[in-house]
Amino acid sequence: xxxxxxxxxxxxxxxxxxxxxxxxxxxxxxxxxxxxxxxxxxxxxxxxxxxxxxxxxxxxxxxxxxxxxxxxxxxxxxxxxxxxxxxxxxxxxxxxxxxxxxxxxxxxxxxxxxxxxxxxxxxxxxxxxxxxxxxxxxxxxxxxxxxxxxxxxxxxxxxxxxxxxxxx
Length: 168
Known about the structure:
The protein has one helix at residues 2-22; strands at residues 26-27, 38-43, 51-58, 66-72, 75-78, 80-81, 88-94, 132-138, 141-147, 151-152. The protein is an alpha+beta fold. The strands form 2 sheets. The chain has a 5-stranded mixed beta sheet with strand order 1-9-8-4-5, with no helix packed on it. Strands 6-7-3-2-10 form a 5-stranded mixed beta sheet, with no helix packed on it. Strand 4 and strand 5 form a beta hairpin. It is flat and about 55 Å long. The relative contact order is 0.21.
């Protein structure tokens, strides 16, 4: 019975240490450099162009953080600095669109050309409506913070790039 207790306690200690190392340290408040985030929805205008939404996270000019990933509305996105506005991070999400028909046939050669369905990756956080979690690095340390009260803005209110041939 004694070897059982020793092995059980050893496993318990090992599992407790492994969970501490893998935990994501989530800050409930964003760093002071991060300003109010917002998102817009878009549609391509033609059937095959698709639709989606963009998440905008402004930061102060002297921000010392580098954001790279965001979890928003059940999806994972890549944050990139906007070229024309260096104090703005943008994540672009495209909706999967309509499901394509699959050819199912006795002869596998007839199924050639079927596309693999796009799967949306499950996110590791529980988010309420209007919330996002951002992964960032500061001084070489990776951290996470939660953004609350993300508002939807009309596309006319947001001006990023305005090519001459496209009107917003």
